[in-house]
Design a protein that fits this description.
Distance between the termini: 66 Å
Helix content: 25-40%
Number of domains: 3
Shape: globular
CATH topology of the largest domain: UDP-N-acetylmuramoyl-L-alanine:D-glutamate ligase
CATH architecture of the largest domain: 3-Layer(aba) Sandwich
Number of helices: 20
Structural class: alpha/beta
Strand order of the largest sheet: 7-8-6-9-10-11-12-13-14
Number of strands: 20
Largest sheet: 9 strands, mixed
């Protein structure tokens, strides 16, 4: 009976009353799920090992029940609740005991994205239809491209909201009473894995979709590189109009070729080269569209220029790729080239994304703390060749050797941080032995960046670039990549204020 009932739950106006729903995790996403289900009239049990005070206080107010307990094994409260559906926060991996229990018990497992799609008709457009969805994923560049796409759509007169993994739960956007024409949804590989489990009425049919790039990441969560790739590929499933892919990344092309899409959906390529028909790219310093115009076999539409992007601080190669992808998505929805040009002039990157935090004398200090994997760090190093490279942290099961072999040798020197320093140092010894390497002992978190900056300043001298692009997660020493970037910027400012660059020297701890 439960399966039959779940098949009917494809609208905000369906009968959700009394549905027994177990919500795993009480993060921002978990709370949005619990809040939505409670508003729909479901019976909600939230299970979590910890809870922020605000969420713990609000759950009984909205009518949900909270069970704070260890989730290392299946709690009796969950078994006794006998849920008809389990909705998991993205942090719960496929191997988690609660996910395995639900699978073995035959209980449907959703993520927050499937729930949001099912109730997407809460607010309708003037024509009586729900907002279109544009899906964005990739190993790197997701958030920037999501923000760019939403900005371009707004400039083109659409009511658009960036949401999903970017920090605003999709359910919050779906329930926003102001309503939207388009939801621009950033999806993590974790969220896509949950979507990949669904072959039901909850399947998404996005208007357009993109996987920006693919490189090994989150291998511990997924269990293998192949599983990670397969999760990312779900982004293209059932796309109705435009499957945007990176011509410079063969994996994304293959995803599109293998995807089950709605008949008539087009493959739209982008890269930094001259575009073919149905592509976006660059011709003699012009960023152009050869996909969304009638005479695309012989002409192109100018969207902006590389010089204009440079003046706006957006000319790093990987940022230009993000701009091309966002432009393709916006053009698929009819945004005019003039609107794209105007929006790009006003767009600013978020903090900790190749952000110049200081220029002092001839030295540029760059914070790319968001480069939490080797693929992202490689883009940064290519944008700043010859930089003093600050690298290391929690490698998340990813081998850094290929990164060091491919682009690490272009660094002037490496300053290695984090608890997995030995792996990074060994990679330099094997693959880039001419690069001077300096270790900063883990020590006290509050002092790590001060020592890093002292060493980097001594290496760079009067001219050059110091680049924080760790190629690793931050949680071994910092609370987040944001915290790591903030501490780096503060240490740089302190160093400049002290005016002590002449006293730094090269420490004897080089390896």
């Amino acid at each position: 009976m439960s399966a039959d009932r779940l098949r009917t739950l494809t609208s905000w106006n369906a009968d959700w009353q009394g549905l027994r729903a177990a919500v795993l995790g009480l993060s921002m996403t978990g709370f949005s799920v619990a809040d939505t289900l409670s508003e729909l009239g479901a019976e909600v049990l939230v299970l979590s090992e910890s809870a922020e005070e605000e969420y713990e206080r609000l759950l009984p107010v909205i009518g949900a029940r909270l069970e704070l307990t260890s989730l290392a094994e299946v709690p009796s409260a969950l078994v006794d609740f006998a849920p008809e559906v389990v909705i998991a926060s993205p942090g719960f991996s496929p191997s988690h005991p609660l996910i395995r229990w639900a699978q073995e018990a035959g209980i449907p497992i959703w993520g927050d994205i499937e729930l949001a799609w099912r109730v997407r008709d809460k607010e309708l457009r003037a024509d009586g239809t729900p907002a279109d969805w544009v899906l964005i994923t990739g190993t790197n560049g997701k958030t920037t491209t999501t923000q760019l796409t939403a900005s371009l759509l707004v400039a083109g007169g659409r009511r658009a909201a960036p949401c999903g993994n970017i920090g605003v739960p999709v359910l919050d956007a779906v329930r926003d009473p102001s309503g939207f024409d388009v939801l621009v949804v950033e999806l993590s590989s974790h969220q896509l894995w949950y979507l990949g489990q669904s072959r039901t009425e909850g399947e998404l049919y996005p208007y357009a979709s993109v996987c920006l790039n693919l490189a090994d990441d989150h291998l511990v969560w997924h269990g293998s590189a192949a599983a990670y790739r397969d999760a990312k590929a779900v982004v293209y499933r059932n796309t109705r109009v435009a499957c945007v892919y990176n011509k410079a990344d063969a994996a994304t092309r293959l995803m599109v070729e293998e995807a089950e899409v709605v008949e008539g959906a087009r493959a739209i390529g982008f890269d930094l080269g001259i575009p073919g028909p149905s592509d976006l790219g660059i011709v003699e310093g012009l960023v152009v569209d050869r996909a969304f115009l009638d005479d695309r076999s012989r002409s192109a539409l100018e969207l902006t220029t590389v010089a204009d992007l440079d003046r706006a601080g957006l000319a790093a190669p990987h940022i230009v790729q993000n701009i091309l992808a966002a432009s393709a998505l916006a053009r698929s929805l009819g945004v005019e080239p003039e609107a794209i040009h105007t929006a790009l002039q006003d767009f600013h990157l978020d903090a900790h994304r190749i952000q110049v935090v200081a220029r002092h004398g001839g030295v540029v200090w760059v914070d790319d703390s968001k480069a939490t994997n080797p693929h992202a760090a490689a883009s940064s190093l290519r944008a700043y060749p010859g930089a003093v490279w600050i690298v290391g942290g929690d490698l998340k099961g990813v081998d850094i050797a290929d990164l060091v072999a491919d682009v690490g040798s272009t660094a002037r020197a490496a300053v290695v941080i984090g608890v997995e320093r030995a792996e990074v140092v060994a990679a330099f010894r094997r693959h880039a032995p001419v690069v001077p390497v300096f270790e900063v002992d883990a020590g006290e978190t509050g002092l790590v960046m001060n020592r890093v900056v002292e060493i980097a300043a001594g290496i760079v001298g009067d001219e050059g670039t110091v680049l924080l692009a760790p190629a690793a997660a931050s949680f071994d020493q910092f609370s987040s990549y944001t915290d790591r970037g903030h501490r780096f910027a503060e240490a740089v400012r302190d160093w400049i204020d002290r005016g002590s660059a002449d006293d730094a020297g090269i420490p004897p701890s080089a390896v």
